[in-house]
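Design a sequence for this backbone.
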């Protein structure tokens, strides 16, 4: 059984695209039968992936969303996933709605994972300098995490090299 990672997202951008994503997600979660069969029901991330035109078997969508809220000029949602944030789902949202900027803060205490991408602290001001455990993630680090998780699933070896400063 995987450790659970809780990722809080704040999404901002053009109102039209925020509303489109919100409407897609609210219509999915209101379905009696999920768009894609799963143990999670209609809020499985695979349902969102399918609704956005991709195959959930090709994208890591190991969890579900909850606490969907349209607030001010943002969309706020929480993903509960296995091990790490589902970076590929967030990337798909961004590719589908190019005006959107997706900020996140994720925590998976079992393995000591505390990460975020909010460099300026606009929505998630916690920093390591303040004594909080959140480490800033780059896109490259997110892509590496995707390769590692896929490697674990397929048995493929993923080699990483750490460079000293």
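Sequence:
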């Amino acid at each position: 059984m995987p450790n659970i990672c809780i990722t809080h997202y704040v999404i901002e951008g053009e109102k039209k695209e925020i509303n489109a994503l919100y409407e897609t997600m609210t219509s999915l979660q209101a379905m009696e039968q999920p768009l894609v069969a799963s143990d999670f029901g209609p809020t499985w991330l695979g349902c969102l992936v399918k609704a956005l035109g991709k195959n959930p078997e090709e994208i890591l969508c190991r969890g579900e969303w909850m606490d969907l809220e349209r607030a001010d000029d943002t969309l706020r949602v929480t993903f509960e996933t296995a091990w790490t944030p589902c970076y590929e789902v967030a990337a798909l949202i961004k590719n589908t709605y190019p005006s959107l900027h997706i900020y996140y803060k994720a925590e998976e205490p079992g393995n000591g994972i505390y990460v975020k991408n909010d460099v300026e602290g606009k929505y998630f001001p916690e920093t390591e300098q303040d004594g909080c455990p959140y480490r800033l993630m780059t896109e490259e680090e997110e892509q590496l995490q995707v390769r590692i998780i896929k490697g674990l699933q397929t048995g493929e070896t993923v080699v990483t090299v750490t460079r000293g400063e």
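The longest strand covers residues 4-12.
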